[in-house]
TrEMBL record:
The lineage of its organism: Bacteria, Pseudomonadati, Bacteroidota, Flavobacteriia, Flavobacteriales. This is L-histidine N(Alpha)-methyltransferase. It is an enzyme of class 2 (transferase). Keywords: Methyltransferase, Transferase. One of its GO terms (biological process) is methylation. GO terms for molecular function: L-histidine N(alpha)-methyltransferase activity. Its EC number is 2.1.1.44. The keyword Disulfide bond does not apply.
Amino acid sequence: MKSENAVNPPDQINQNSSTFRTDILRGLNQKNKKLPSKYFYDKIGDRLFQTIMKMPEYYLTNCELDIFKNKTSEIAEVIMHNHTPFDLIELGAGDATKSVYLLQHLLEKNAAFSYLPIDISENILSELVQQMETKLPQLSVVPMEGDYFEMLEQATKQSENRKVVLFLGGNIGNMEADEALLFCKTLHSKLHPGDMVLMGFDLKKNPHTILAAYNDSEGITAAFNVNLLNRINRELHADFKIENFQHYPVYDPVSGACRSYLVSICKQKVTIDDEVIDFEANELIDMEISQKFTIEQIHHLMNRAGFQSLKNISDSKKWFIDAIWMA
Ligand code: AVI
């Protein structure tokens, strides 16, 4: 997921072309059309997300960076539990923009740990290894390329050290509630008692602030959404007319769900390979959820997945939380 977490799809699955085709067609043949946002992250999508993270409206990245820069010792205190050796595993490490502050601090504190970045992109991992050799030459880095949970299992088999798993960026918010619960339960099932998770959650806040983050004035978020239609055109020989779809983000401050839709501005037909998909005028494609949480919702999710809360660490504005849980 790019700069940190940017370069990795929130939900890592095998994105081979037949799975892609099946998922896209299944989503567009539903009564309420829906496309999986994990497919936003092709090369162009990665670049667009990098740009989003630098936009003034997109506060999430800076909030979590604030935590990693300024609350590093609070994080380290919890995860260096009893000073026993541990493996620090990062799901979707990207370029470790945020975690590098923690890594540096842990080295300064002489913590006994190795860093195991997991990413589906080999390129990203080899760049990360090179970068760490220069920035933090004393760091022991064990890159792991592949699916999050498969790699986590492998890491557990490779070493008996306790595990501390980082899942940053608020990526959990890109899962529907049932998917987020399943993800956290699966994560719990791969860990042993005493292992820890540090997960980033974007909190509910002024609805205007949230909506602006997904409706930027430059139209980058719109391009990020529409890029999936371009990707389908390219990879599945489809004929979406991009100008016939409009980006429409909405935020429901009651449920905390921020959703992006694409609106078909006219009645039209789209061909994907040999399948024809009909769109009515004003029909929607549900493109992405970016769920915003309350502390109570985070606790509820954690409890249902089988974890205990150790600490919630927030940024100075209290807009974002990194929650530390114990399995
Ligand atoms: C990756 N993820 C946490 C981003 C988010 O905020 O939901 C993806 C994104 N979508 C639109 N802007 C950013």
